[in-house]
Structures are given as structure tokens and as C-alpha cells.
Amino acid sequence: MRFSSTAFFFLAAVSSVIATTGDKCQVEIVRAVECDRKTRKGDQISLHYRGSLQDGGKQFDTSYDSGEPLSILVGQGSVIKGLDDNIIDMCIHEKRKIIIPPDFGYGSVAVGPIPASSTLIFEIELVGISGVESPKSIVEKSKSDASKATNAVKDAITSKISDAINAAKVLLSDSDSDGQEHNEL
To answer: How far is C-alpha 47 from the geometric centre of its chain's CA atoms?
Structure first.
């Protein structure tokens, strides 16, 4: 019986980790660019964006229509958290697609054309960083090192969670109903 209660708490902890990691923003680097200076917290930046709803794909806002990029301070809370957190470490002319769950967007509040509890998709392009010269030419990367590392980390976490779930299943199946332990040799 001791194994069953241990396995139960283990499974609860694993499901908590899965729920936590499942609620994060997803970032895809659409155009990776080489640069010497990336965005950092406190930078004044200009970016073009297109915001749409994941459910149905309806566009709710864009800077492209006006032709004027949005100017913001990075990491200062001037935009929703999911966007603010994911515009750090960008190069000028880099493009990203960011999928933002409600907890990192507007939450359970409806805002203008955005229904409550909406998952948002932002396609962004960094146009400039105040005080940083724009490169004369764009040197694209096939795939950024950060993106490769992110995928490797995701794969490792998925593998470890799968191993942990399988171990918990073994613990549950090896416990006898009479309370005696089963020991592997």
C-alpha cells in the first residue's frame, strides 16, 4: 500500500509540472537574423505586429495597416506579458510568431474584439532598437541556436515526464493488494 500512496503523490506532482509547462507561450522564430546587439530589458524598440485569435484566426489588430511600427520599452509591462517576455534577445529584422495563452494575455477579461480567455497569436518583426544602428544588410540564419536548444530542452522534458509516468505505472502495478512489496532483482 505504501507504493500506491507514493505513486499517487508522484503522479500528482508530474501532472502539476505538465500543467505548468503546458501554459507557457510558444515562440517560433520565423526569420532568424545574425546580429551583434539583441534586445534587452529596458530597450526602447519599434516593431511591426499582427495580432489574431487562435480560435478562427480572426485578426484583431495590426501595425502594418498604418505603416507605423509600435514603439515600446522592453520588459516594462507596456504590452501584455506574453509579448513583453518574448521580445527579449531579438535582432533587428528578426521575425517571430508567438502563441500566447490567456494567462499571459488578457486572461478571463474581454478586451475590444478579443473574447475572454482567448489564446492569441502575434506575428512580430523587430524594426529597430533605439540607439542601435540598423544593419546595412540582413544576414539570415537557417535556424537559430536558441531555437535548436529550445527544441532539445522540450524533447528532454517530454522524455523525462514520460519516463516518470511509466515508473509510476510500474509502482502502481507492482503493489499487491495485501500490502506486501514487490522487489525486482
So the answer is: 19
